[in-house]
Amino acid sequence: MKAVVYKGPYKMEVEQVEEPEIQEETDAIVKITSTSISGSDLRAYRGKTSVKPETILGHEAVGIVDSIGTAVQSIKEDDRVSIPANIACGFCFNCVRGYPNACLTTIKERAGAVYGCADFGQYQGCQTEYIRVPFADFNCLKLPGVPNDQWEDDFLLLSDAFPTGFYANELVQVQAGSTVAIFGAGTVGLMAAYCAILKGASEVYVIDNIEERLNKAKEIGAVPIDFSKQDPVEQIRNWRKSNVALQAAQRQDDFRMNGVMSAIDAVGYEAKDDRNPLNQNPNQIIENLIRVVNPTGKIGIVGFYSIFPQEDVDVKIKKK
Ligand SMILES: [Zn+2]
């Protein structure tokens, strides 16, 4: 079968690899019909992770069950399934408490396994034709429809981006009437904004500096904030101050609550510096979260943070 294989920094190749086989009776082999490229894949591509050459990247996929082990109960051949990015057992201390992202069974070195991701277990990724799914009863989400129907692209988002955006809202307890600031308008940030609106938030701000992304945030119903034009925290405070109805509803001491109650980091350590977007500033989003959130508010981080060489921090983002 063909697969997208990592060969080293900035070098990927499509080549023939061996098809995966059932190794445990709890496994399934899934024929992938759609997959995508995550920000984590881009970190690997740039050589910023310890992913080894010959690894197949990718951890977002939807497909059709090709075969199952004898112990698999809940899915069968030809079922259409989503494959969540996290590989989890469903029965360990963390899984039973609702944290499959920190499964203790599927990786021995730490907590939490992911397909085709350095430091998250030795599992091949999804950017290929067939994939081995461990603990298939827990890691295959059965879906309606048929391959390449009108839901194919939407279902692909169920692997990672949509649930991560939803989970970000859970972390900061978004509910009806919430005020939410989301840093980053990549796929996860936009999904977080979409979920905040689904949950009934009354104000949703999305911060980025790429016009197309901000336009998409506006299309979803959020207030787009371009951090390259002015300090994004000040922009949010000013926007709230300029809202006549909001100000009229406030009591005399409420001016100290002119930030938001819920603030989400959907960027991580590869953040651009607000004042000089050509440079990276790994602390930028954390600083902004602290400044924008009100007393008693919540901050939630779904952006990726890692131990990385200091010289990477100073790497200037190449101009397109
Ligand atoms: Zn587990």
Question: What characteristic shape results from the CA principal axes?
Answer: elongated
DSSP helical segment count: 11
Low-confidence stretches: 309-320
Q: Mean of the pLDDT scores? A: 92
- Briefly, what CATH class of the largest domain? Alpha Beta
Major beta sheet summary: 5 strands, antiparallel
The counted number of beta strands is 15
Number of domains: 2
Helix fraction bin: 25-40%
Task: Name the bound molecules.
Answer: zinc ion
What CATH architecture of the largest domain would you give?
Answer: Alpha-Beta Complex
Spatial arrangement of strands, main beta sheet: 9-3-5-6-10
Output the CATH topology of the largest domain: Quinone Oxidoreductase, Chain A, domain 1
Helix and strand element order: EEEHEEEEHEEHEHHEHEHEHHEHEH
Superfamily at the CATH H level of the largest domain?
Medium-chain alcohol dehydrogenases, catalytic domain
Classification by helices and strands: alpha/beta
